[in-house]
Design brief:
InterPro entries: Calcineurin-like_PHP, Metallo-depent_PP-like. It comes from Pisolithus microcarpus 441. Residues 1-25 form the signal peptide. The chain contains 14 helices and twelve strands. Residues 13-108 have low confidence and may be disordered. The chain starts with 5 loop residues before the first helix and ends in a 6-residue tail after the last strand. The protein has two domains: 6-94, no CATH class; 116-453, Metallo-dependent phosphatases (Purple Acid Phosphatase, chain A, domain 2, 4-Layer Sandwich). It is of the alpha/beta class. Bound molecules: 2-acetamido-2-deoxy-beta-D-glucopyranose (2 copies). Residues 296, 299-300, 303 line the site of one 2-acetamido-2-deoxy-beta-D-glucopyranose.
Length: 459
C-alpha cells in the first residue's frame, strides 16, 4: 500500500480548498463564455501561491465574508486586502481592520499602527457604449485588458445611466454583474446607482432608446419585459440603489451605512468621532438642498426608491412604451414622496450643482454635506464634454463627461485615494487625493486634503 506522506496529507486539502476558492472568485453567474483571461490566469497560479491562498482563506477571520448571501454584497464590510495595508510587513489577509488588533513587529522604532489605504474609482454616464466603458475602466485600473477585475481598486462606483443612446445595454449590465462577483471574491466592491434613464425605462419612457438596441433584446415586448419585470429589472431591484454613501474608512461601516446611524448601530461611535463625515455621497443627478429626504442618508432615499420601483414592476398590464404610445407617467397609487424622488429637485434629475453659479453652490454645499455625513458629493447626469467638474474645492464633483460615442466627450474616471497613517508624535494623518483620470489627456488633481487627528483613538 502506498503511504501518503504527512506533507501530502497537509498540503492536499489546502490545495483543494484553494482551487475551490479561486474558482468561486473567477466563475461568474452570468458570463456566457469565460473571458480569455480566465484561462490565462490559471497558468499564472503557482503552487506556493495556491497554498498561500488556501492558508489565508482558512485562517483569515474574514473568510466568512465570502460566504455572504447573494445580493448582500453591498452590505458586506469593506476589508483591507490586497494593497490597503502598506509598510506593515504583515500578510494583509491576516490583518483585521481595527488597527489595534494587528500583530506586528514590536521593534521599538516601528509604529505598530498600520497605514490604511483605500482606492475608489467612480465613473459617470456610460450610455450604451461598452467599448468606451471598457477603455475607461482599464485606464483607471479597475479592470485588465480582458475586462476582469484587477483587485487594484477597492471600490468601483458607477453613477447610473448605463442604458439608452447606444446599443450595448445587455453586454454592459452583464459585464457589471460579473465585475460585482469578481470584486466580491477579491475583497472589493462594486457600487451601482440608478440614473434617470434606468428609471425612464422602468416607467415606459423610451424616448432615448435606439431601434438597433431594441433588436438586441429580440423584440419590443421582450425588451419591455426585461426592463419592467424581467432580468434587468431584477438586477436593478437587487443590486442598484438611487443613492450611496461610501465611507472612506471601514470603521465607519460598509457602503451605505446610514448617517446618522440608527441608535443601536455598531457604527454610531465612529460616525460621531474623529472620522465623522469621512465619506462621499453618490447620486445620479444631485442632492438638492431643498430635497426633504436627505436623512438618514442614504436609506431614506433608497427606501422610497425601492417602493417606487416595486410599484412600477407590479403594473399589470405594463403600459405600452412611449413613443409611439402616450407617456404612461407614474403608476396610480404613487405617493408624494415617490413622485418627488423622480421630480426635478429629486436625486435623479437635479442639476443645480452643475448649472448654478459657484458662489451660490458653495454657499449651499456644507449644509447638505453636514446632513448626509459626507465630505464630498459626486454626481453624473449633466455632461461636460471636456473634463470632470470640481466646485468648492472639490466638495462638488460632477463626473459625467459624455463618455459614450453618442456624446463624444473625453474618457474620464474619478479617482480617490484615501490614506490614514499614524504620525510618530501620536495621532493620525488623513489624506484625500482626488484626481480626474483621462484616457487621452493629462490627469488632473482636483483636491488634496490633509487633516491631522490628535489622539490615538479613532473611535
Ligand atoms: C446581484 O449581485 C449578486 C452578487 O454579485 C449576485 O449573486 C446576484 O445574482 C445579482 N442579482 C441579480 C438579479 O443578478
Ligand atoms: C428603510 O427600510 C428598512 C427595511 O425595511 C427599514 O429597516 C428602515 O428603517 C427604513 N429606513 C427609513 C429611513 O425609512
Amino acid at each position: 500500500m502506498p503511504r501518503l506522506s504527512t506533507w501530502t496529507l497537509s498540503v492536499l486539502p489546502l490545495l483543494v480548498l484553494s482551487l475551490a476558492y479561486l474558482a468561486q472568485s473567477y466563475i461568474s453567474p452570468l458570463g456566457p463564455a469565460p473571458h480569455l483571461g480566465f484561462g490565462l490566469r490559471w497558468y499564472g497560479v503557482t503552487f506556493s501561491s495556491l497554498v498561500g491562498h488556501a492558508q489565508a482563506f482558512v485562517m483569515s477571520p474574514l473568510h466568512a465574508l465570502s460566504k455572504a448571501q447573494p445580493g448582500s454584497e453591498a452590505q458586506a464590510p469593506l476589508v483591507p486586502q490586497h494593497s490597503q495595508i502598506i509598510d506593515s510587513g504583515v500578510p494583509v489577509e491576516a490583518v483585521s481592520e481595527a488597527p489595534s488588533e494587528v500583530a506586528v513587529d514590536t521593534a521599538a522604532d516601528v509604529d505598530p499602527r498600520p497605514k490604511f489605504k483605500r482606492r475608489i474609482v467612480a465613473v459617470g454616464d456610460i450610455h450604451g457604449d461598452l467599448l468606451n466603458a471598457h477603455r475607461v475602466l482599464q485606464m483607471a485600473r479597475v479592470v485588465d485588458e480582458d475586462g476582469l477585475w484587477t483587485g487594484e481598486v477597492d471600490v468601483f462606483v458607477q453613477t447610473g445611466d448605463i442604458i439608452d443612446r447606444g446599443d450595448d445595454t445587455i453586454a454592459l449590465y452583464e459585464w457589471l454583474e460579473e465585475l460585482r462577483e469578481q470584486a466580491h471574491g477579491m475583497g472589493g466592491s462594486v457600487v451601482s446607482l440608478l440614473g434617470n434613464h434606468e428609471w425612464m425605462n422602468a416607467i415606459g419612457d423610451w424616448r432615448y432608446v435606439f431601434p438597433s438596441e431594441i433588436e438586441t433584446f429580440g423584440s419590443i415586448s421582450a425588451r419591455q419585459k426585461a426592463v419592467t419585470t424581467g432580468w434587468l429589472a431584477n438586477i436593478w431591484a437587487s443590486n442598484y440603489t438611487t443613492a450611496a454613501r461610501l465611507p472612506l474608512h471601514g470603521l465607519l461601516g460598509p457602503p451605505n451605512t446610514d448617517y446618522p446611524p440608527p441608535e443601536d448601530s455598531q457604527y454610531v461611535r465612529a460616525n460621531a468621532g474623529p472620522l465623522s463625515h469621512a465619506a462621499f455621497s453618490f447620486v445620479h443627478g444631485g442632492l438638492a438642498p431643498s430635497y426633504p429626504n436627505l436623512q438618514p442618508f442614504p436609506s431614506a432615499i433608497n427606501n422610497i426608491s425601492a417602493s417606487l420601483l416595486h410599484r412600477l414592476r407590479s403594473r399589470d398590464p405594463q403600459p405600452p412604451p412611449h413613443p409611439p404610445h402616450s407617456y404612461p407617467g407614474l403608476p396610480v397609487g404613487t405617493t408624494r414622496e415617490e413622485a418627488r424622488l423622480y421630480g426635478s429637485d429629486g436625486p435623479l434629475w437635479y442639476r443645480g450643482w452643475a448649472e448654478e453659479n459657484e458662489a451660490k453652490v458653495c454657499a449651499q454645499v456644507n449644509q447638505v454635506l453636514e446632513k448626509t455625513g459626507t465630505r464630498r458629493m459626486v454626481m453624473g447626469h449633466t455632461p461636460n464634454l471636456h473634463s470632470i467638474v470640481a466646485k468648492c474645492g472639490g466638495k462638488v464633483l460632477i463626473i459625467d463627461t459624455g463618455i459614450s460615442h453618442a456624446y463624444g466627450g473625453v474618457l474620464s474616471a474619478l479617482s480617490v485615494e484615501y490614506t490614514l497613517e499614524p504620525v510618530s508624535s501620536g495621532g493620525w494623518r488623513e489624506q484625500e487625493v482626488v484626481k480626474a483620470l483621462y484616457a487621452d489627456q493629462d490627469d488632473e488633481l482636483l483636491a488634496h486634503a490633509t487633516r491631522d487627528l490628535a489622539g490615538n483613538e479613532l473611535l
